[in-house]
Amino acid sequence: MIVGTPIGNMMDITIRAIKALKSADVILAEDTRRTMKLLKFFRIEGKPVYSYGAHNETKSIPMILKMLNEGKTICLVTDSGMPCVSDPGALLVDACWRKGIELDVMPGPSALTSALALCGFDTSKVYFVGFLPRGKKRRKLLREVKGKKGVLVFFEAPIRIAATLKDILEIIGDNEIFIAREMTKVFQQLYRGKVSEALQLFKDTKGELTVVLKLQGGRKDEGKSREDH
What's the mean pLDDT when you consider all of the chain? Predict the structure, then answer.
């Protein structure tokens, strides 16, 4: 079972998700320490919690498939939000499909859909890229979406947000942008305005960031961008 968990506020979890975690034989967690805090908060005890993250995603699959074939009920969770959405899980889900193993999902909080709901932009066409690549690859991606119309949604780390916004300003322009920092948490910050203003506001920041950039369309080669070396 793919189980969505809170992206910040512990109360943002469904009744069905809690029931699934309580009934599971095994819980797979991206970070066992964070998941144990969640289980403790909801008084879910005595469950074996196994590490399942980017470091062991591939090599863990045979063991997990063996447990599933033995009839065990397994819940897959990540640090926050929906597994498989820029988080570990897709390889395991693919393996289950290939082996004919039954799957189910407990929908839950998602930074992606939460940001789309909050931004106020036309979201009929969405380009979601997860975490942006760095350096030349990031600038290449931005040039590729420059001529599109819709919204570009991505996650970014606080140490890279300034460089990313500089690239957006130079390659795409001073478009409208929405940035959510620490969504649903105590120090949640929501911003909507221009890229240039966001660059000043978030140049020295902390916490996880979800960004929605409004794309205006037009030709990809409009404007100038610096050469990559």
Answer: 93
Residue 191's Cβ-count burial label (10 Å; 0-12, 13-18, 19+) is: middle
pTM: 0.89
Tokens coding 101: 């193993």
pLDDT digits (tens, 9 = 90+) for 84-122: 998 999 999 999 999 999 999 999 999 999 999 999 999
Q: What is the Cα–Cα distance from 195 to 176, expressed in whole angstroms? A: 6
Domains of the chain, each with CATH number or no CATH: 2-106 (3.40.1010.10), 111-216 (3.30.950.10)
- Report the C-alpha gap between 92 and 57 in whole angstroms: 8
Distance CA 198, CA 174 (A): 10
